[in-house]
């Protein structure tokens, strides 16, 4: 149907959005190209997608290669017939957006897809069955089916994990391949089986064969990741066998920053005919061919090195290859630069390039100077200039994007200056490009507030036409969505642009408001300009004064487009033809043939010609430069119509687009060729003579779409969102002023596809009309039309006659003199419209009455409260109190308390919060407004503590009790938890607060629980913190605790000290166990005696360590028990008459020897480690001391072997017991001389300084 076309751009950031079938047809998400021809040929689109196309794949099997599958962000999977371009079936197996899809190269019926939540679904095309698996809870980025085994699928995840699953075993994980650190962008299998193709040396191959002998024959898998590496994996070994680091290539004189990972999409492709070669993308759009049998820099080769313009300029997303019948292999690549390139893998050169479009085509226009130079304004924030007449490259285009930050909505070539192209954007910017240079555009300093819809070059008008003769002969006029037309000076765009409305008002003496302008068109001779308005009126002005010549009152809707007939090679009477198109779908022709301009403006109400046939609004039109009175129009009905204007006949109708059309222009060189662009992201060239249809399709197509929209309300909300920079652009009168059309790019730059008309629900657009407070006056405005028109005549006659006009005016504008009668208000009261009555009373000045009524009916609000002071302080105070009650009924207690503060009722506000259990807020208010000793604070804390204690929040309740000064209650409530930590904290709290009795009780409870858990140290700490309990520490630990000992080989059992039993001793082991237990019992009694003496003399320190005291006394006793000054070692204490224990059980020489040997070995080990560290670099010095150390260790080990049972069953430290007994010599007469002598002998023999092993170290 069409000759050439620029198709829609492939999607970005998708792992598989292009594919090639065995018939050499390439689909890029939605469009199809024949790769066998010299130039690509666009052949069609798949229409019907409802959301973003996230994946695409062909069936690669003969007889079924025309079938393809696509995945979408709404979770659906669609099967298509690419020949008929129809939808075969649709499945909604996924509940989340689908991120990858692939048709199995082995099984012609198997399709595998994966979504963002990690769900993998297998679809069987011939039966329609599905099976779901969940191999990993990760986000799937890509997947690919094995070309050798039908049940093996490789899945790549966002976190860098690659998983091989077996779909025949319910998605069982076969291998987990770990190595990448970031997103897996692409996966591709080796085209051949086996893992011996990458070894270029014979010994490597033999080693590989030897390792894999007897193992399963595997296959290589290549992966590309965001971590800038390509890895080759061995599926039989489950690991990477090769890692390829992307080379940093210089581009445009600067090196790529390797740290910028987010600018990289690493796609890999393994050509079928090249088993040892791999193609990957690179940082800035380059394609690299890797030779996997080489190493170093010789491993990779850059594609397209013969010319700088061959490579992509931005990152590449997808690659596909096809093997032709002439043994050539072609590679197809898609990129962010919106170009599709075809590469010959033999020569590594680019065969052809196909530009694509990433947005709506808003404007297209041919240059009047450069023949065949077509400019396109596109919604992807770029301008394309296409040389349509070149023979070498049919798609010779250049892109311009500098200085453009939003959609390009309007274009206009300079009438005389070649290469000068003006543009307007969606954000209100106007600029001029020189397309033959690389300079950035000139931008006007005057911005429009809304979208620029029309640009036109014309003669300057005042004030720009005044001044020196060096002024430009053309000015640039821009019309935007706010209804303003600005005149820009192209030679000085930095200057201020002028609004032509001021000149129109001054010239024509207009006092009323001008209707917003929507379009303008200059007559080719520059003498007349036609301006279309929002109310459907067209005004024709004479330049340069802009005197109004004619006003056309034919259209009744917004004017979208105006065009004057060209003035070359046509009769003079046709030069005055003006074509107009509006939203009422009819094209009108008007003729202005007057030789002299009229003195007063002429009003035209009948058209010269009427062209009917379109079923929706007219968006653009163009006159044929080759014919007389031949016009082409485009419409929202999705068609382009060629007309014979004079005959009012339809010539040809083009229906090749999908969706509404936005722009059109006639070829300047071929009378039979027309170019059109629209919302389907395409520009299409077509011939008038080859069209099948003559007239537009009949019926209300838009009405059908609206009805379809109503019957299918399951449209996602995100499709109707109108975002700022990348979301939607306002369309003039697009089925309502509030409707905005869906734009082409999302926030990340990915192109949105799916040609489904997004129409608003008219039921949602209609807002409920607010109720009138003046129903009688409103009802008078709904009288018959004749009466309303008579009111207008009456009002005009009254206004323009002398006399009293107030009463007449009131009658005409339906505001009766009895505006505020009581009966009028009672009508609102009876209807329950109290708010209307309140406002009527306010307007009449009865503020107190309005507040009283609102108080009675519970209709008070913040607005009424703000005007209450107008009625006095008393009324205001009463209103506040009433509003507080109303807020309490509405459970808005904080707001109510705040209003009480406004009338200085602080205590009432606190009581309000207190009564509704808002204790925290009440305390905060009291502390902010009252002194710290205010009694109400103690009351608040006590009340809050009681509530917290009742709810089981004991810690918070304790804090409140403490804040209120009730320390006893705080300790009691903490102890209610009855655990060790709570009891300890409660005891400490009571001790600090001076509650001694309570502290002792809680400490004893805590110590008992700790002792029951055999935590002796912490129990001692708890009791030692209470000074009055120091005497009972040892007795508590020994006599109130149960001990138990079980020996496997003996018959020894020990029970509580409260219930002593006879110990039955059997053998040496049992005897050693009994002696150990009895020694520990006497050990505790020994300490009990010591503490009792210290407590009586009140000279004990709570933090004194037993071991520290023992060391000090040990040093002094070794010198005979006398200090250097001749004083006794032990301080003077009260004498203990009797020692209530058998001290001889503690003085066991065998245990003393064993303990001394253990201490010596520990000391030797420490010294040996220090010496090894010190003499690690001096082997000679280490050898000299080594024999002495070894002998000492042997002596200690021999001594330890003699006391086996002493090591098995512990015994109190004998040296420590000797020191304590010697300490008792000054306070107890029960320590015999023989016992003292035995203790001194043991100290001399087994003290640390008398040990033979220790003297060995000193020597």
From TrEMBL:
GO molecular function: mRNA 3'-UTR binding
Gem-associated protein 5 first beta-propeller domain boundaries: 69-198
Basic and acidic residues bias (residue ranges): 692-707
InterPro entries per record: Beta-prop_GEMI5_1st, Beta-prop_GEMI5_2nd, GEMI5_RBS, Gemin-5, Quinoprotein_ADH-like_sf, TPR_GEMI5, WD40/YVTN_repeat-like_dom_sf, WD40_PAC1
Keyword Repeat: yes
The Gem-associated protein 5 TPR domain, residue ranges: 826-1016
Classification via SUPFAM superfamilies: Quinoprotein alcohol dehydrogenase-like (SSF50998), WD40 repeat-like (SSF50978)
Highest taxon of source: Eukaryota
Pfam families cross-referenced by the UniProt entry: Beta-prop_RIG_1st, Beta-prop_RIG_2nd, GEMI5_RBS, TPR_GEMI5, WD40
Location of the region described as Disordered in the Swiss-Prot/TrEMBL record: 692-729
Signal peptide coordinates: none
Gene3D superfamilies in UniProt: 1.25.40.980, YVTN repeat-like/Quinoprotein amine dehydrogenase
GO cellular component: nucleus; SMN complex
Basic residues biased stretches: 708-720
UniProt KW Repeat keyword: yes
Residue windows of the WD repeats: 220-243, 611-653, 654-696
Domain Gem-associated protein 5 second beta-propeller: 372-679
Keywords tagged on the record: Repeat, WD repeat
Any one GO biological process: spliceosomal snRNP assembly
Domain Gem-associated protein 5 RBS: 1062-1178, 1207-1247
PANTHER family attached to this UniProt entry: GEM-ASSOCIATED PROTEIN 5 (PTHR46362:SF1)
Record protein name field: Gem nuclear organelle associated protein 5
Gene behind the chain: GEMIN5
